[in-house]
């Protein structure tokens, strides 16, 4: 009786399939690529090894392993050194471009970490942009020209909300502005000045006391209100037994100054704004000891923007320099 046997089954060898999948998934050794690049640049394995300070055999093994991994010869070996194959030329042209991109990315990351590049988003009040803040912005821009600076102008509550939403890095506001959960540092103070029509009798005074203003009418716009000048004036006039006569409008300081000239009332500004020329308007200082504004920086404690940290560091150093006694 004939015995029937199944035909022998062909056993698939690992080298037929696993080698291909392994090669597809295995990570390329970047050290081997960088050493092979050096061999290509020197056209010699021995010269590349000498430049690296390693044995020639170590470089040869890495190059050979890289060629085995890629499945292609990168070099033609000659007695005088090595010469790139066509495949090798294409490979190293692309890898050089890739390494250049990596170097550029690393340089950018390092620059951002030093605060030399990046962006800082700053909230300002119109009344703060002059004086000390303008000097800070100028010095920071000069020291870090590659850092982009984005500004937002708006009421203090809006700026605090934007800080909490991480839409602003730092805001410069009047000291005392409610900012729960934020870090606050006071950086400078400013005096208060009254804006008068140049025909007003008080223009004959170099400094105007608050008691001379208790019977005057004031007109203030949003910049003075945001800076808290209405509260300062009301408190000091009340101290002399008066009650501040005030009207407020949602208008700019420029518009207020035009109304001052027309006799609608007196205006109030901080003393960093007196350098602005308004035809027909005269500024007179109020006693600094009797009332001044303090301005502070506000930011989230968890904000690790290196550009902002450098900005605050410069603000502190400028404050320390102003505070140091002059010899």
Automatic annotation (TrEMBL):
Keywords: DNA-binding, Transcription, Transcription regulation
GO cellular component assignments: protein-DNA complex
Taxonomy, superkingdom: Bacteria
InterPro entries, per the entry: LysR_HTH_N (IPR000847), LysR_subst-bd (IPR005119), WH-like_DNA-bd_sf (IPR036388), WH_DNA-bd_sf (IPR036390)
Region ranges (Disordered): 1-24
CDD domains: PBP2_LTTR_aromatics_like
PROSITE patterns according to UniProt: HTH_LYSR (PS50931)
Record-annotated HTH lysR-type domain positions: 39-85
Biased amino acid composition, Basic residues: 1-12
GO molecular function: DNA binding; DNA-binding transcription factor activity
Similarity comment text for this entry: Belongs to the LysR transcriptional regulatory family.
Name assigned to this protein: LysR family transcriptional regulator
Taxonomic path: Bacteria, Pseudomonadati, Pseudomonadota, Alphaproteobacteria, Hyphomicrobiales
